[in-house]
Amino acid sequence: MDEAAVSIMQPTFIKEKIPSAKFSMALGNKLGLCELDLPENENGCTALWTALNKALARVIQQNLPITCFSVPKADAIGKYGEGILNGGILKNTPDMLTLASIDGVACCVVPTLPFASTGCIQFIELDMSQSSITAGRKARRADITVKFVVGTLSETQVEAVPSESIPVESIASLKENKIRLEEGSELKAILVEFQEAEEAAAAAAAVVVEEQKTAEDEEMVVTAWDVKGKIDYTKLVKEFGSTLIDDNLMKRIEAATVGKGNVPKLHRFLRRGIFFSHRDMAALLDNVEKGTPMYLYTGRGPSSSSMHLGHLIPFLFTKWLQDALNVPLVIQMTDDEKFLFKGEYTAESGDNLNHFASLTIENARDIIACDFDYNKTFLFSDLDYVGRMYPNIVRIWKAVTTNTVNGIFGFDGSSNIGKIAFPAIQAAPSFASSFPTVLEAGLDTDQCCLIPCAIDQDPYFRMTRDIAQKLVKRDHGLGGKPALIHAKFFPPLQGATGKMSSSDENSAVFLTDTPQQIEKKIKQHAFSGGRETKELQQTHGADLDVDVAFQWLKFFLEDDEELAKIENEYGSGTGEYWSTGKVKERLIEVLQELVASHQERRAKVTDDEVRKWMAERSIVVKKN
Ligand code: TRP
After folding, report:
1. Domain CATH for 551
2. Which end of the chain is more exposed for a tag (fewer CB within 10 A), N or C?
3. Domain residues for 91?
4. What is the pLDDT of residues 73-92, one digit of tens each?
5. Ligand 1 probe mutation, 300, 315, 360, 396, most atoms within 8 A of CB
């Protein structure tokens, strides 16, 4: 082997007065011994020594001829490469070397003339007290030292022939980094088996740890205010009583959207199961197909001035729905809600209601930057617009008991009365009659409502749907109930549990982040499903379910083919995207572009512009 530093045979026989010798091979920090890796554990080492003993016994038994050459040093290196020598020999040896070769088995520089054939040897015994294997992921170097004792039958030595007669071809195979001896191939198979068994054991141990961790982890909690733990969406849908979007419904959604010709294909959030659950979508489509007018309703609780990528999900999807269906959209800003739940009062400075009102304006700019159609979109702050919805709010208050609200939202007698009253305010926009001017609707309206939202908002609308019939005429197509389409949560950078939070700076990418901040956050904080070592990654591939970079690409990378390529390659540890680094790089590009173009659009949204979007006006789409 060219790269291995093989020491010249040390003539231990001189001192020990028995035919013994020792040599070692240093492989540097590689484990590779031609095609083999040096074993890292005791079982593997034992297997290697066993294989070596077996090979020695065979070679002796086969009585193979040993040829011997005397060769000028430069020739030897030229023909066999430096592997034939070692550093010491290179510098300190005489110009003529003695080379011994057993055809197809071995060829090396020897200190004295060897025997004529392996048949002269009675046995070769390894001296295990002085033989060793050093290898291991953590070892700085890998090397093998073999000390052996030889028993002889006859002492016939060969004559060294001159170098011109060296059989180059027969020795050429010795230069290849291939396993030559059958014992070596057997050993390789055994070592691979050991390695796999070890990895399987490690993986099993990791699973146990993971399971314990999950068990220790907080239980899954999904309420309108709190999302914790590992989310099991199937279980959630069962608990909430909503329905998964099936193929059949997907086809109907496609017909109602793509089929109308306003969008080229289903939104990637639908294609990839991110909007995954619904209530009454089929019934809504029945009505739409019959020509019943409909509108979209979504909202945002303005709790911080900077929105993050997670906040964008429902809005991006809503924008697509608006384009696809060509329908009006109302967007509720629940500054009242945020004040009731998070507001503060101090005797010196009073309360911070105005703070939440101003957050509405800040967030409205981000929402407008999502590129909605101004003529079809009405954005409103509860603090400002609630009067117009008041008749419906009162109707809802009358229809829902405190026990029901407490049951759904977990309030009790110590909750401020605003909290208990609030669900009616989030419910009210589900009824077109809350928008007499904006949707030109009265109590007798046929208009149906569709609410795209993250699934944690479902409790509000379960309550709404239960009392809906009291706010519409008897033959309303959906009995007044809003239809819903639910999104999964956008996973935080640190790992795929819960949802992203604006309060933890490093758990989210904000729409105000610079390209550098985006790069740093992804590189440093995005939880990786990649394996510990290059070898493991290349044999097992990444765990895509927990890999945040991949999960985020699923949300934001538009190209299905490229996503499939990344999924295949990263998931198997092969190809261009074999590693976490490559996948993160791609994500960084995608996000830098997305955030930059968002910032560009946002910069154009002036306060005046916001006022225009929040002005009460008809957004009804006129058919012509
Ligand atoms: N409560 C939501 C929040 O805290 C805001 C909201 C109001 C909303 N109405 C909605 C969200 C309708 C989705 C759909 O963000």
Report:
1. 1.10.240.10
2. C
3. 10-196
4. 777 777 766 666 654 555 56
5. 300
